[in-house]
Every structure is written in structure tokens, then in C-alpha cells.
Amino acid sequence: MDKIFSSKPGRRRFLFTISILILLLLVIRYGVLPIEAISNAANVNIESFIDKFITSVFTAVIVGYFLFWIIADEKKKQIEFTESRSEIEKYLSNSRKTTDSWLFNGGLGRYTKSDTIPKLSEHALKERKTIYINIIVLHPFNISLLNKYIDFRLSVESPNKRAKWTILEAQSEILATIITALYYKKHNQFLNISIKVKDFFTLSRMDISNSLAVITREDPTIPSIILEKDSFMYKHYSEEFQQVSRQSQSLDYTFSSVEAPTIQEIQKCLSSMFPQDTICADLLDNIFNKFKTPENPFASW
Q1: How far apart are the first and last CA of the chain?
Q2: pLDDT higher than 70, residue 109
Q3: What is the pLDDT of residues 233-257, one digit of tens each?
Q4: 172-217: per-residue pLDDT in tens?
Q5: Quick one: pLDDT at residue 31?
Q6: Which pTM does this prediction carry?
Q7: Is-contact 154 165, C-beta < 8 A?
Q8: How far apart are CA 72 and CA 208, in angstroms?
Q9: 74-79: long-range pairs with CB below 8 Å, 24+
Q10: What is the pLDDT of residues 46-84, one digit of tens each?
Q11: Region 37-50: what's the mean pLDDT?
């Protein structure tokens, strides 16, 4: 019954079919019966059968509809919307405390750098358990892509923040996120971190744990979506992450690690991963500063 009622076309077809059936039975009941060719007892039995059948079908439909809307209401409770920065951080924080995996797909990975990786690292050490972290960010050296991303950010940012968004700023944030991931991967044996870069961007960011998916937008005026694991949209976003992952490029950091948080270590690491790309002194300084003092993006909402 739930499958029939779960879609509007399905409900319409079902109710149309039931209505036609009941209408035909009513026509037979009051327009055809009694039939002179059969006995009175047979007519009475047919009338009784039709009456009971119509009553049973009508009751089943009413009860089915009632149960469907109760179930639908429960499912709706598994999806929440919020514009509150503190609520978003509360959901993310609580989710980190119980998970053994984390999926992130977004643009620059600022919150991943400032909170997600450090806090998951603390949790993994405290519980002595392995946590798998999969990170997908924009390709830091795809300049055309970064220009499109910056144009979008400028369209949704308030005027006093627009000057911040430049190619250098975007590259610094992404590369600092990558460096942060490699640093924690090197210094915490319980973290299993995978990093990929993509050549396209989406309007939504997703953080997915074992129990929760938090979908946010770069535009703080648009509500964020909180999805419990049992909600029908949790599976959708988990599958979307896998699709994005298949279209993204894995970074070869076999010979890349960050032993100590120094500019020299950062330059050595990035040159190994991006040998064809130029990493200027200004970019290195920015990466180092963002690695040392990461900014929580929700704090500026």
C-alpha cells in the first residue's frame, strides 16, 4: 500500500480504479438486481456479497490512506531544514562523535580543514579506531573552473566580502585543505584519508557520516538540509557522492607527506603532487597561514 500511495500518479490510478469498481458494483446492486432468472435466495446472497465487498474496500482504502499519512509524517521528521549556523555545527559535531567514516564533496573544504579533520582525528585517537575520510574538492590548478566558482561566490556574497575572492585565495584554501589532510594522515595511524579533485563544481556541499547527511549551500540565505540515515534522501546523496567520486581525479600522494608544518615541507609536498604546476611564493605563504590558522566558514555567516 505504501508503494502505491508514495507517488501522486500512483494514488490517482489506484483511486480511479477503486472508484470505477465500486461504481460498477453499485450499478449492479441497484440497477440490475434482483435478477428474475435466479431464485430470491441467490439474489439476496449476491446483494449481501456486494454490500460487504464495497464496505470492506472502502474501509481498507480509508485505513490505508490514514496509515500512509502517518508514515509519511514520520519520514518528514527525518528531514530538517535550518538556517542556523549553530544548529548546523551542532549536527556536524554530534555526527562526528559516533561515525567511522566521513564523506565530503564541496568546493574549497574550509570547514573540513578547520574542524572536520582535526575533530575526527581527536575522536579516532580517543576511541582507538580507524576512521575513513573521503574528500573531494575543486582542482586547484584548473583556472577556468576557479574563475567560474569565484563568479558564483561573488554573486551570493555580501559586498563587504567580495574583495576576498580571487584565484590566489581559492587556490590557497583548497591546497591548505589538502595539506591539512596529508598532515593528519601522516601523524595519526587511525585516519585513512582519500583525497580527490574535480573539474566541475556543484551548488551544494555535502558532509555525510554513518548516521547523518548535512547538505549546505555557498549561499547562507538558503536553508541547509539535515538528513537522517533512514530518510529516503540520505541514500540519494550517498549515491551522488559516489557518482562525483567516479568523475574525480585521485591525487597521487604516495611520496607526499607533511612531516612538519613548515613552508619548505608544504612546497615539497605540493611539488610532488602537482609537478606541472607553478607554486609561487605568495601562494605558499597563503597556504601556510591557512594551514596554521584555518577559518571556520560558518563563523562568518
Answers
A1: 44
A2: yes
A3: 898 899 999 999 999 999 887 756 6
A4: 999 999 999 999 998 899 999 999 999 998 888 999 999 999 999 8
A5: 85
A6: 0.73
A7: yes
A8: 23
A9: 75/231, 75/232, 78/227, 78/228, 78/230, 78/231, 79/225, 79/226, 79/227, 79/228, 79/231, 79/233
A10: 888 888 888 888 888 887 766 666 555 555 557 788 878
A11: 84
User: What's the per-residue H, E or C state across the chain?
Assistant: CHHHHCCHHHHHHHHHHHHHHHHHHHHHHHHHCCCCCCCHHHHHHHHHHHHHHHHHHHHHHHHHHHHHHHHHHHHHHCEEEECCHHHHHHHHHHHHCCCCEEEEECCCCHHHHHHHHHHHHHHHHHHCCCEEEEEEEECCCCHHHHHHHHHHHHHHCCHHHHHHCCHHHHHHHHHHHHHHHHHHHHHCCCEEEEEEEECCCCCEEEEECCCEEEEEECCCCCCEEEEECCCHHHHHHHHHHHHHHHCCEECCCCCCCCCCCCHHHHHHHHHHHCCCCCCCHHHHHHHHHHHHCCCCHHHHC
In this predicted structure, which of 59-63, 279-283, 290-294 has the lowest mean pLDDT? 59-63
Positive or negative, the CA dihedral 97, 102, 105, 107 is positive
Q: Return the residue matching grid coordinates 507517488.
A: 7
Pairing state of beta strands 131-138 and 101-105?
A: parallel
Which grid cell is 34? 434482483
